[in-house]
Amino acid sequence: MGVDVTVETTIARPVEAVAAFAADPTNAPAWYANIRSVSWTTPPPVAVGSRMDFVAQFLGRRLAYTYEVVELEPGRRLVMRTADGPFPMETTYTWQSAGQGATTMTLRNRGHPAGFSRLAAPMMERAMRRATTKDLARLKAMLESAEEAPKGSSS
After folding, report:
1. Which residues pair with residue 10 across a beta bridge?
2. Cα(23)–Cα(46) distance, rounded to whole angstroms?
3. Dihedral of the alpha carbons of 124, 104, 136, 140, in degrees to the nearest 10
4. What is the pLDDT of residue 49?
5. pTM for the full predicted model
């Protein structure tokens, strides 16, 4: 059984500001509660082929994995896949104008756990949905409370 979680929110900031901040992996620990650190293994900024090592805490376990950027349409879409980690995972960010300077951001995580994780997939999917919903709410609050959107690397 696979895991497939999609969550979206509307952020009262322009697409360019939301995408620039969210697409910069260096900013991930600021808005993802479970991500402890991100280290670039290729030089920034984000581009197809970029690789970053992430360390996260999820369901009481420390997870270390490497993401590789496999698709990038600046200001529209970013797709990363685990190149190394506990189970194959793909994360997709999309950004669309919601009118009047607002952005609809969609965050999708999908993967195919193996071994014990496969048995826990239904519980893992619920936990991922809760965490992702909170993460997008944190991102929304951060970006909307900023006088000027935080600077991210240009994507």
Report:
1. 104
2. 8
3. -170
4. 97
5. 0.87
The answer to whether residues 18 and 149 touch, using CB atoms and an 8 Å cutoff, is yes
Q: Rounded CA gap, 41 and 87, in Å?
A: 20
Q: Could you tell me the two tokens for 32? A: 């993802």
| Tokens 């979680």 -> residue | 5
Select from 124, 120, 5, 144 the least CA-distant residue to 58.
124
Residue with tokens 């991210």: 152
Nearest to 149 by CA among 93, 103, 92, 96: 103
Residue type, 81: R
Domains belonging to the chain, first-starting first, are: 3-24+69-145 (3.30.530.20)
Q: Which amino acid is at 71?
A: E
Cβ pair 93, 106 in contact under 8 A: yes
Q: In what order do the strands lie in the sheet with 77-84?
A: 3-11, 102-111, 89-99, 77-84, 61-73, 51-58, 35-40
35-63 pLDDT tens trace: 999 999 999 999 999 999 999 987 778 88
Structure tokens at 88: 């194959």
Exposure on the CB side of residue 120, measured as CA atoms within 13 A: 10
Cα angle for residues 114, 117, 120 (degrees, 5° grid): 130
